[in-house]
Amino acid sequence: MAEPIRVAVTGAAGNIGYALVFRLASGEVFGPDQPVILHLIEVPPVVSRLDGVQMELDDCAFPTLAGVEKFDSDHLEDAFANCNWVLCVGSVPRKAGMERGDLIRVNGPIFTSTGKAIQAAAADDVRVLVVGNPCNTNCLIAMHNAPDIPRDRWYAMTMLDQNRAATQLAQKAGRPVADVKNIIIWGNHSATQYPDFFNASIGGQPAPQVIGDDAWLQSDFITTVQKRGAAVIEARGASSAASAANAALDTVKSIITPTDAENSFSAAICSDGSYGVDEGLIFGYPLTSDGNSCSIVQGIEHSAFAQEKIQATLDELRSERDTVKDLLPG
Ligand code: LMR
């Protein structure tokens, strides 16, 4: 067996955390030969719930689980000490009727201390995935508060949108979801995101050709994906949890596994200026991985329709950045 890696999860006793940590412990993500030590983190009022999560983890007897350590969020440097991955799940969730942007001033300050503590304590090779909303801008805040950590280590989650979009296309086409490739989410994990159906394929054919209904693609498809989070909140009375956890794990797997040539994946990363996006914004792009680091897929052509959508999500991210500029040192 390899040396254990340490994986921190904030909000580990919450709904997403509970759906996440067992799968992290099981070997599903890092493989059957990679032991994992979980650092479970919660806010002080509910930190005792981690005792129950730990008991259940123990009761699973996962051979890959090499340890469980529990922390309250007042001690983040201890919590992130030597961690190779930090999954920032904890944040105040959106309630019915709120837009994700409404959360920005509530959750933003949490991510200044998160960034500082990651820089102070995490392992040299740390990678960070922000799930808590508004995840792009929370990631931006944490990254700015950890200037010594290379900018290619920061990710915000758009995989949930990708998975939603893939299923919408598959169901419309009457095809298995595994046939859908390269369905990429551009921009913000919000109602302005752009799910790029033009460049997606279904069974090796261009998605628009297989679907044969451009009006649906340009309207219902996009709005269904953009508003799916709100629809889940409305239907469930709580924000998506199992599907969000699943997407977080899909993101980590996509980052650590060499990408198959035909299938890029979605995550928001620190822009290098590709596709006219401001350098430094955390923007959803098509990515490929060599199993260690990720690259933005270049050379994708966008129609005027797509350019307009990408501009809208870029403008939203610029305005989110302006809203939190006092939290962005450097
Ligand atoms: C989601 O997309 O389901 C989550 O980001 C929760 C939300 O507020 O939409």
From TrEMBL:
Phylogenetic placement of the source organism: Bacteria, Pseudomonadati, Planctomycetota, Planctomycetia, Planctomycetales
Residues that coordinate or bind substrate: 94, 100, 133, 164
GO molecular function, one term: L-malate dehydrogenase (NAD+) activity
Domain Lactate/malate dehydrogenase C-terminal: 158-326
Binding sites annotated in the UniProt record for NAD(+): 11-17, 107, 131-133
Task of the protein: Catalyzes the reversible oxidation of malate to oxaloacetate.
Organism of this sequence: Maioricimonas rarisocia
Gene3D superfamilies: Lactate dehydrogenase/glycoside hydrolase, family 4, C-terminal (3.90.110.10), NAD(P)-binding Rossmann-like Domain (3.40.50.720)
Pfam families reported in the protein's UniProt record: Ldh_1_C, Ldh_1_N
The UniProt record lists the keyword tRNA processing: no
Keywords: NAD, Oxidoreductase, Tricarboxylic acid cycle
GO BP field: malate metabolic process; tricarboxylic acid cycle
EC number: 1.1.1.37
Signal peptide per UniProt: none
Lactate/malate dehydrogenase N-terminal domain: residues covered: 6-148
Entry protein name: Malate dehydrogenase
Domain of life assignment: Bacteria
Catalyzed reaction equations: (S)-malate + NAD(+) = oxaloacetate + NADH + H(+)
InterPro entries associated with the record: L-lactate/malate_DH (IPR001557), Lactate/malate_DH_C (IPR022383), Lactate/malate_DH_N (IPR001236), Lactate_DH/Glyco_Ohase_4_C (IPR015955), Malate_DH_AS (IPR001252), Malate_DH_type2 (IPR010945), NAD(P)-bd_dom_sf (IPR036291)
Keyword check for RNA-binding: no
Catalytic residues in the record: 189
Family the entry assigns: Belongs to the LDH/MDH superfamily. MDH type 2 family.
